[in-house]
Design goal:
With 290 residues, this protein is α/β, with parallel strands linked by helices. The protein has two domains: 14-127 and 280-288, Aldehyde Oxidoreductase, domain 3 (Alpha-Beta Complex), CATH 3.90.1170; 130-277, TIM Barrel, CATH 3.20.20.70. Helix content is 40%, strand content 18%. The strands form three sheets. A six-stranded parallel sheet has the order 6-11-10-9-8-7. Helix 1 (14-28) packs across helix 4, helix 4 crosses helix 5 and helix 6 crosses helix 7. The protein is elongated and about 70 Å long. The chain starts with 13 loop residues before the first helix and ends with a strand.
Length: 290
């Protein structure tokens, strides 16, 4: 099956995680925790655990494991699940022991990030489960939260989805505004090949004539955007007759309610911005042991 050539975010660099966590925490604690600083001695140590309040797909083991790197004092961590696992509600995701003031300092920031990522992974898995019988891949998009793109695309992978291009520098996707600027699909593709002869080229099309023009230019992939499933099926059949090896991606207005009808059309992949921009966060809490 044809597929996009973009790298998949299978892991996150530990140094990157630590750097980002420190930045996120500094946003919440720019000048110390002025409440906890009054009530808790610096030497006090506590045990706590992170628990989920709903069934979910886990995306956060690599993040939790870097918490000890945020502080010079000793912090012990035990993570009980792997990323990508389906976790029953009220499970102890991780157990933490360390300075009480430190745990209180990082609690909200850590939970906020984990809730977001687990929500994306859980949302993604719902789509993946529906389309898996049809051999169709679920793709993410660049519709991510600014500053969280690597984290969110990693969460998509934890949910069983696949990463589209990471950024505008990584790949070529010729869209309607580019076609207008160039004057035609043919000219747009020619311009791209002149500057980037080895790059994978994908073109967004709006009708059958544009589809044929893109196929005749021997592009690598086609983005079929905002078509109803019945119309899309006809375009997919047309494209396969002309070039069986071409990559075909559907997008636009695709939800959990209708994604199966799009998967049945014969496309290779379905890209869904809602994987990241509309994923509800799952409910997590950190409970301190008495």
């Amino acid at each position: 099956m044809p597929f996009l050539p973009y790298p998949q975010i299978e892991t996150l660099d530990p140094d990157f995680i630590v750097e980002e966590l420190l930045y996120f925490i500094s946003e919440d604690v720019p000048d110390g925790d002025i409440t906890s600083d009054i009530f808790f001695d610096k030497s006090l140590v506590s045990k706590a655990y992170i628990e989920n309040e709903e069934e979910m797909i886990f995306a956060g083991r690599q993040i939790i494991e870097q918490v000890p790197s945020l502080i010079e004092e000793t912090v012990s961590i035990k993570v009980n699940f792997n990323d990508g696992e389906r976790i029953p509600r009220y499970s102890k995701l991780a157990e933490i022991e360390g300075p009480t003031k430190f745990l209180l300092k990082v609690e909200r920031t850590l939970l906020n990030l984990l809730q977001r990522l687990c929500g994306i992974a859980t949302n993604t898995r719902k789509y993946v489960d529906i389309v898996s019988p049809y051999g169709v891949k679920i793709l993410d998009t660049r519709k991510t939260t600014p500053g969280l793109r690597l984290f969110e695309k990693y969460a998509v992978r934890c949910g069983g989805g696949w990463n589209h291009r990471l950024n505008l520098s990584e790949g070529i996707l010729i869209k309607d505004n580019h076609i207008v600027a160039a004057g035609s699909i043919t000219r747009a593709v020619e311009m791209m090949r002149l500057e980037h002869p080895l790059k994978f080229i994908e073109v967004e099309v709006e009708n059958e004539s544009q589809l044929l023009e893109a196929i005749l230019m021997n592009v690598d992939g086609i983005l079929l955007d905002n078509f109803e499933p019945e119309t899309l099926k006809g375009l997919v059949d047309f494209a396969r007759q002309k070039n069986p090896a071409i990559f075909l991606e559907a997008s636009g207005g695709i939800t959990l309610a209708n994604v199966e009808s799009y998967a049945k059309t014969g496309v290779d992949a379905i890209s869904i911005g809602a994987l990241t921009h509309s994923a509800p966060s799952v409910k997590l809490h950190m409970e301190f042991c008495k």
